[in-house]
Amino acid sequence: MGKKIVVVGGVAGGATAAARLRRLDESSQIVLFERGEHISFANCGLPYYIGETIQKREKLLVQTVDGMSKKFNLDIRNVSEVTKINRDTKTVSVKNLKTGEEYEESYDVLVLSPGAKPLVPPIPGLNEAENVFTLRNIPDTDKIKSFVDHKQPKEAVVIGGGFIGLEMAENLVERGVKVTLIEMANQVMAPLDYEMAAIVHKHLIEKGVNLLLKDGVKAFEDQGKTVILSSGNKVSTDMIILSIGVRPENTLAADAGLDVAERGGIKVNEYLQTSDESIYALGDAIEVVDFISRISAMVPLAGPANRQGRIVANNIYGKNEKYHGTLGTAIAKVFDLAVATTGNNEKVLQKLGKDYKVLHIHPASHAGYYPGAHPIALKLIFEESTGKIFGAQAVGADGVDKRIDVIATAIKGGLTVFDLTELELAYAPPFSSAKDPVNMAGYVAANMIEEDVETIQWNEIDSIIEDGGLLIDVREPSEREAGYIKGSVNIPLGEIRGRLEELPKDNTIYVSCQVGLRGYLATRILMANGFKVKNLDGGWKTYSAVYH
Question: Looking at 44, 54, 289, 302, which residue is catalytic?
Fold first, then answer.
């Protein structure tokens, strides 16, 4: 006789685990409880249905209860909430939310996939406001869409500049709503470092979003028609979207005495077992290990949840498959930009006290002479002594996803920056350049390590100039008309060999250009002539994203 397996929660992880369990064993009894109506829906698609890019609501429903029950021979009970885990008797208490009936269901193995819920802080005036929404599931989506369709709000406030906040801001703008985005940090999208987020800030403002950084919400007034900010400023609005983050749904696990981490994630071992060996957990509700730093993390992403669902099913059938940690590869569309990230950013590495090097390049998404090429801002973070890749970030209108995906694959495969130079990637003018941006990043990193090419960062150069440092801008004079770094001296690259006697031999010379490439060429010329030189990484393009 097969096992009896109870799965709590559908959507990405739970539904995947249930389907895989059935594929591994025809004879087991598999019961899936889902407290909502829908067991498997495209939660990442919800903002786009509100914005009407996705027009048909049924497109969001990945699997219906009926279809999935038949296809996988599952006992699916939706609108049923598991209220308690009774570990001593190996049962769960269940409440049918339609009829109010309560009963117990036994299990041999239990799989917890309850997900995470939006954070809703106790903001004064919240309970009186009828125009505040969070977005997690289909009913939330229906509420927001119906409000936009029927009330036709003129103004909306989105609180929180994470992935969902930005996607909601864009989709409300698409519906003709004037959006104010409020974010407590000094930047949107925490996985990005500040100078990369600055590109996104500029774009949001260009698209008409009223962006308020370094400000929070103190209270709601007039039934949510007025938002009072921490700064004392007031914003009037017709609707409010709260998207300040999520909290793992851990009540069931905690009440049952399973180990729960400080930040709320259910603790699991590398086989995704909880502190009770007959209970597994997965998805947004668990604490995972960061693939790079090996410290615990909370990373609510659909890809890892699906992978964990498969691993849990395998392990229930004795496979002993390990989950190796989450890299945090993610991408978001922000109006015309794609914004993607993988691995650790500088903020994380600084906290961990790691030594690292950074580079910024601005290659085109494909050959510049073929129409439609767009610049990509690509940042790579690596270890100088070994060439190990810690992480990467990219922002651009096109070609961002494939560059970050290649680097994410390289990190998983243990490749170094030197290996990036050797990757043989598909090239034709409409798709890439003969030196792909990923190769370019590898070349720049290899130059820094092997040729001792020293760089300085966008946030260091101003104070260097203030202290009397010499910065040579090697661009053409016409390029400086669009902006330049105050205090820099213009010597175009083509003239540098003939003007060496103007330069001091005893002090470090700093060079900058548009994106860093001509700065590197100037650096090589000057180094060969016995000067000590540092190149401004990313050039004017990286610097001006922050300061211009």
Answer: 44
pTM: 0.95
Q: How far apart are CA 335 and CA 424, in angstroms?
A: 31
Q: Which tokens belong to 52? A: 């009407």
Active-site annotation holds for 44: yes
For residue 94, the one-letter residue type is V
Q: What is the per-residue DSSP string for 267-282?
A: P--TTSB-SSTTEEE-
pLDDT in tens, the chain (548 residues): 689 999 999 888 999 999 999 999 999 999 999 999 988 888 889 999 999 999 999 999 888 899 999 999 999 999 999 999 999 999 999 999 999 999 999 999 999 999 999 999 999 999 999 999 999 999 999 999 999 999 999 999 999 999 999 999 999 999 999 999 999 999 999 999 999 999 999 999 999 999 999 999 999 999 999 999 999 999 999 999 999 999 999 999 999 999 999 999 999 999 999 999 999 999 999 999 999 999 999 999 999 999 999 999 999 999 999 999 999 999 999 999 999 999 999 999 999 999 999 999 999 999 999 999 999 999 999 999 999 999 999 999 999 999 999 999 999 999 999 999 999 999 999 999 999 999 999 999 999 999 999 999 999 999 999 999 999 999 999 999 999 999 999 999 999 999 999 999 999 999 999 999 999 999 999 999 999 999 999 999 999 999 97
Please state, in angstroms and rounded to a whole number, the distance separating the CA atoms of residues 55 and 496. 58
- What is the rounded CA–CA span in Å between residue 259 and residue 254? 7
SS3 of 362, please?
coil
Measured CA to CA, the distance from residue 331 to residue 495 in angstroms comes to: 42
CB-neighbour burial class of residue 331 (10 A; exposed 0-12, middle 13-18, buried 19+)? middle
DSSP E strand boundaries for 383-466: 389-396, 454-456
Q: In 3-state terms, what secondary structure has residue 396?
A: strand
Q: Which two tokens stand for residue 305?
A: 């949840």
